[in-house]
Amino acid sequence: MSALAIALIIGVNYFIGIYYGIVNLIYTILLVISLSVVLRHIRRIKYSPIKDFIASPETPPISILIPAYNEERIILRTIRSALSVNYPFFEVIVINDGSTDETLPTLIHTFKLRRIDRAYRNILKTSPVRGFYYHPEMPNLLVVDKENGGKSDSLNCGINLSRSPYFCTVDADSILEENALIKLITPVVESTVPVIACGGVVRGLNGIELRNGGIMEINLPRSGLAMFQIVEYIRAFLFGRVGLDAMNGILILSGAFSLFRKEAVVEAGGYRVKNVTEDMELIIKLHKHNIEKKNPYRIKFISDPVCWTEVPENLRMLGRQRRRWHLGLMQSILQYRSVMFNPKYGKLGLVIFPYYFLVELLSPVVEIIGYVVVFLSYFFGLLSFHFLILFLTLAIFYGIFLSTAGIYLEEITYRRYPKWSHLLRLLFYGVLENFGYRQINSLWRFQAVLQYLVGMRKWEYVEKGKNHVIA
Amino acid sequence: MAYDDRVSIILIGIIAFVLLLITLLLAVTIYRRAYHGKKYKKLDRLRDHYMEKVTGILEHGKMPEGFAGLASRPNSLAWQAVESVLHVFIADGKYGDQARVLFQKLGYVDFYEKKAKSRNRITKATAVDKLGKMRSETSTGKLIPLLDDENPEIVAVATRSLSKIGSDKGLHGILERMPKLLSDARITRKTLETSLMNFGPSSLPTLIECGERYTDPMPRASILEVLSNMKTREALPFALTNFRHADPEVRSKALKVVGAAGAELPEADKEKALLLLDDPVWFVRLQAAKALGNLKFGKAEDALAARLLDGSWQVRNAAAMALTMASDKAADIFLRTLDSKDRYAKESICEEIEKTNFVAKLIDHLDSKDKALAGKSAEILKIMHSLNYSTPLVEYGKTGPDERIRKEVERILRMEPAA
Question: What gap in Å lies between CA A101 and CA A104, rounded to an integer?
């Protein structure tokens, strides 16, 4: 082999080693920050004014927006859960995005809805609306039927119809905890700096027993794939986002459960219809818009309110979902590349954006190249078996450490999984996910990068509702 | 030592360290669950025990001699159990006063008052919150200075605690500082208004007195907002004096107070509200339309009709809603306005006609002996149909009970609606 190739492989090896070290250092810092923030938040919950706000006429009204496309299997339980939240003034707006299944007839039949005529103000431009449905005895439920335009388009339509100063987006396969909304609005109302967006925690719904839209009993799923995702969600929400929130550096609030100030979103132009993930693009836009306008603002993440969402239980669907998420991340970052390293945007341009680009976006690429190069190095005799094993062990052990730390955070804070068997299974899957699951995840994200580069940027549909009996 | 050996030793060292961390985390997680499981079981048992004991003391009137057996070391499990039991009695209300005395006698109030001086923000806020939940009136003097704290979190918790205690002194303490708290953005208006509501109707004279004194519009508007939620006639004179205030928010909140409680106001006062329908600020006009709708003030018809073509859709909707609620001549007015060229205004009217179910009246009028009324109603329904607001007609056409009306409805429906 030529000296150049050897030098190249050795160079890449060093690069990967240094990159890996830096990324893990960043994760460790985020973990330490999160530990401190979450523990303080837990103590603060004790004097949170939730009870006061539940009973107060001053609590701002919220519109819950539920976009639905071919969700006949699960839409009813989602609406029932949304209608049963503990909140003084709210309306539920379901946007049927041109479903081709029985979503709309199911809704009309179940809630005995009547078609009504309403003025539609197309403030954020959307696909044409076909009709409105409501029942006079259920005045806080409105179903709007529109032509298919995608999730962002549906959310824009919901914003146009919303009559509240705040709206909360909820996925059609998600269940809100009873107090989720009031917990989400409390820091918004209490903050002396305007909070324009606020997100809560999303957890895996699989395995949970439901009745009438409410959670009867929390259990873990049998499926190993769902278990991996549950561990992953705990880690991502309890230490990734909490750490970034401490720096007002949140760029992703899950579309499955986020609250927004309507005025701020409309001013920024609403959701961008062309992106495959709508949530990140909107958050970046809100940051950028408010920094440019020099408006004081906060975008918050709170680790307490919970929304339960169904996670895919087969590899094909999971792969689609993960590719879409990563594609969305790439689209959003590259769309707003002018923010990157731009001092005009302060912390956002100099720290947060580079973090998302260099760590979140590039890590699967470096990881996959890393596996190839390390094995090539071993194959060509540039790396001894002894070192190969040491590097792999370190990588896997560090992954296990992060997973265990996530579960530890859950245990010392919210402890949503009450049984001993839950804890032991979570710990077990926290260890096991480092042997295959993480790597395949990186592979899907790497595929998304390749797809982006060759121009395949379409939404991959993920089928939902197959893992639950509809109650 | 060779370079490779050194690297190897460093790597093994790091791996061993990470492994140690993993083991530690696993052990701590499992130990914590076991420890807390045991602790909370014991706490539950203690709660049951003390619930029985305290109930006995309170029901048999053994106060104050019976409380000795409840004393325990601060922060011990027994201390926590007694505290949560006494909170149940306070929330329940039946033995609230006795529970408050017990908190005092058992040293909880002293303990948390000391904690409220802590430098740690969270410890301090927790203690302040506890004093409020204990309804410790004697702590009012100690909580009021906390309203001057630089930290918004402490200010918010102190305000809430004072509002739960509900003393006059606490209310004055908040109201005196209100303008500065709001102008310095050390508390949000929603938090403040929610807390002021907790003081209840007895706070009304003090609220009005302070509201009159404030020259700053923000606190004045907040006081009016609280008064509007109290829905009380006693607040009306104060509200009426604010109709000509320079600040639009104050004017709109004053209208809200009148809209909520002014049904029996003399005509002259209702006319003052009517003038605000022409206010240059849209949200004042909106509140004026809402208030006049609530007041069912007949003289407002023409002014409300003019607002059906307002530049703001919120005002248009409110005016249409007010007309359907307040006016017998709504049909005439709608017909007149539906003749305009402004499509949005026409749609607002149609929407309100449907929402308020005024459309049902219009359909019934199709068979009225009063031919003029029947004609006007048919005309409105035709315009609604031309704007695609036809659903009630379609429904009546399918299932309506009156044969003659159904025929009339079908005749209207045969006309081509707009594209």
Answer: 8
What are the tokens at A390?
């040491």
From the CA of A114, how many Å to the nearest CA of chain B? Answer: 9
Among the partner residues B15, B157, B194, nearest to A58 by beta-carbon distance:
B194
Range B77-84 contact pairs with CB under 8 angstroms and sequence separation of 24 or more: B77/B39, B77/B42, B77/B43, B77/B46, B78/B46, B78/B50, B80/B43, B80/B46, B81/B43, B81/B46, B81/B47, B81/B49, B81/B50, B82/B50, B82/B54, B82/B106, B83/B108, B84/B47
| Three-class SS of A283-306 | HHHHHHHHHHCCCCCEEEEEEEEE
Q: What DSSP assignment string belongs to B323-359?
A: HHHH-TTHHHHHHHHHTSS-HHHHHHHHHHHHHTTHH
Give the H/E segment covering residue B230.
helix B217-230
Per-residue pLDDT reduced to its tens digit, B241-259: 999 999 999 999 999 999 9
CB contact (8 A) between residue A47 and residue B26: no
Beta-strand pair A214-217/A209-211? antiparallel
With CA atoms as reference, the chain B residue closest to A135 would be: B355
Q: Is the dihedral of CA A243, A223, A254, A340 positive or negative?
A: positive
Q: Give the pair of three-digit tokens for residue B145.
A: 């200075």
Task: State residue B65's pLDDT score.
Answer: 63
CA distances to A23, A78, A296, A337, B226 from A348, rounded to whole Å, are: 18, 35, 14, 12, 39
Which residues on chain B are in Cβ contact (under 8 Å) with A391? 11
The total number of residues written for chain B in this structure:
419
Q: What is the pTM of this model?
A: 0.86
Question: C-alpha A444: how far from its chain's center?
Answer: 17
Nearest to A411 among B29, B198, B225 (CB): B29
Q: For residues A182 and A202, give the distance between their C-alpha atoms in angstroms, rounded to a whole number.
A: 16
Mean pLDDT of A29-47: 89
Q: Which residues of B touch A56 (CB under 8 A)?
A: 194, 197
Q: How far is B60 from chain A (nearest CA, A)?
A: 32
Q: How confident is the model at residue A470 (pLDDT cuts 50, 70, 90)?
A: very low
Q: Percent of chain A, pLDDT > 70? A: 96
Nearest to A286 by CA among A268, A302, A270: A268
B337 vs A232: CA distance, rounded Å: 60
Tally of CA atoms within 13 A in the half-sphere of B215 that contains its CB = 0
- Which residues of chain A are within 8 Å of residue B357 when distances are taken between CB atoms? 136
pLDDT at B419: 46
In this model, does residue A469 exceed pLDDT 70? Answer: no
**Contact flag B21-A116 (C-beta cutoff 8 Å):** no
Strand order in the sheet with A174-176: A114-116, A129-135, A138-146, A90-97, A62-68, A166-170, A257-261, A195-204, A298-309, A174-176
CA–CA dist B127, B144 (Å, integer)? 14
Q: Are strands A298-309 and A138-146 parallel, antiparallel or unpaired?
A: unpaired
Identify all chain A residues contacting B157, using CB atoms and an 8 Å cutoff. 47
pLDDT one-digit tens code per residue, A297-325: 999 999 888 899 999 999 999 999 999 99
How far is B186 from chain A, CA to nearest CA, in Å? Answer: 7
Beta-strand relationship, A195-204 and A62-68:
unpaired
Instruction: Count Cβ–Cβ pairs < 8 Å, chain A vs chain B.
Output: 116
Q: Are A53 and A66 in contact (CB under 8 A)?
A: no
CB atoms within 10 A of CB A353: 24
Let me know if B77 is exposed, middle or buried by CB neighbors in 10 A (0-12, 13-18, 19+): middle
pLDDT at A400 over 90: yes
SS3 A379: helix
Grouping H, G, I as helix, E, B as strand and the rest as coil, residue A260 is: strand
Angle at the Cα of A33 (from A29 to A38), degrees rounded to 5?
Answer: 145
Partner residue opposite B25 with nearest CB, options A60, A119, A408: A408
